Amino acid sequence: MNKFSEADLILNKDGSVYHLNLKPENVSENIIAVGDPGRVYRISQHFDDIEFEMNKREFITHTGTYKGKRITVLSTGMGVDNIEIAMIELDALFNIDLKNRIPKEEKKSFKIIRIGTSGAIQEDLQIGSEVVSEYAIGMDNLMQYYNLAQSDFETEVSQQLQDALGLPIVPYTIKGSEMLAAKVGEGMVKGNSVTTPGFYAPQGRQLRIATRNPKFLDQITCFNHNGFWLTNFEMETSMYYAFARLLGHHALSISAILANRATGEFAKNELKAVDSIIMKVLDRI
Question: What's the domain count of the chain?
């Protein structure tokens, strides 16, 4: 069996994976992911105890127990490129013999639930709503470097959306974990999230720079493929779902709706919906 080279599988001097600075024993198979590093403590403050903490760049990790269940909380910062790093290095902790630099014969899967914030695309999706992303549509080009298998339905949605928006690349459409959605998402709104590579023009915002397609927001709001509507914008979900499929893990994304792009509203208390989701995920993960 070929070993991974030191340049491909980069480890720190203590044997931890390069960016996350974690060792296998530091991480639970139950993972909650957040973009904002400050949100890690907002979750871990509910733990019965915290056994491990690590701060490395935007990647902050707390592992502890909540009602007897071992849970890891990890921040990634914003954007799909960070999710690629996080998911591949987390997988390495579970499925690569780091000492010998070879894949383990027995593969393990972990559960990862993203708790994030989002902007509604549809007018009837109210501020404060809790949205479970049934599907995610990736508008980035990062997945062009991987061979991601998609169902016929996912491929149809991707191609129709490219045509509708006149995009230079074909987006990818990918479904989240049905198991986690059933377990954690009870009582929440089911949605189809658009994962964008930026916050302003890629989500139809224009301040002092003109966007290339001024009709983008209207076009994406009206997009409908056989009853498949797009519900909200965010910046990470599709990459979680893609790498969960590629690597054999379970991923789910839940977003608190803080803005409604159709009405121009923004939440008066942006933490209320986030805190509600945090407690539901902790109790159900």
Answer: 2
Q: Kindly state whether residues 8 and 125 are assigned to the same domain.
A: no
Rounded to two decimals, what is the model's pTM?
Answer: 0.96
89/137 same-domain check: no
CA separation for the pair 51, 243 (Å, rounded): 28
CATH number at residue 83: 3.40.50.1580
DSSP category for residue 27: -
Contact yes or no for 253/133 (Cβ under 8 A) = yes
Q: What is the pLDDT of residues 188-242, one digit of tens each?
A: 999 999 999 999 999 999 999 999 999 999 999 999 999 999 999 999 999 999 9
Range of the domain at 73: 1-108
- Inter-helix orientation angle 237-247/80-95, to 10°: 30
Whole-angstrom distance, CA of residue 29 vs CA of residue 110: 5
- Mean residue pLDDT across the chain: 96
Q: Are 123 and 99 contained in the same domain?
A: no
Q: Which residue has the tokens 């599709």?
A: 238
147/245 Cα distance (integer angstroms): 11
Of the candidates 43, 75, 108, which is a domain's last residue? 108
The verdict on 131 and 94 lying in the same domain is no
3-state SS assignment for residue 156: helix
**pLDDT, tens digit, 9 for 90 and up, residues 148-198:** 999 999 999 999 999 999 998 999 999 999 999 999 999 999 999 999 999
Pair of tokens at residue 192: 């189809």
Question: How many CA atoms are closer than 13 Å to the CA of 136, on its beta-carbon side?
Answer: 32
Do 76 and 189 share a domain, yes or no?
no
